[in-house]
Amino acid sequence: xxxxxxxxxxxxxxxxxxxxxxxxxxxxxxxxxxxxxxxxxxxxxxxxxxxxxxxxxxxxxxxxxxxxxxxxxxxxxxxxxxxxxxxxxxxxxxxxxxxxxxxxx
Length: 105
Fold this sequence. Notes:
Elements: H1 4-32, H2 39-66, H3 73-84, H4 94-104
Helix pairs in contact: 2-3, 2-4, 3-4
């Protein structure tokens, strides 16, 4: 028959093993389920949101300037190139330009 000392050792080993498994598996499981966001994923999502918002501004300004006219590729290009550049930028972000140009089409 096992003594209380042996039972405590088995219990302690089980608790330590469970703790280690939880420490290793917990973060992996929550990351894969989307409950946590890594800093690189957050940076990607923020960049996508920035491009999307700036492209929406570009499209709205280009459509306002076009006054409801049907836009050919050359006009779309010129309007997207003009409005993709935000006031604080020296030149337009190519991702914003591409999204604006494609949305105008």
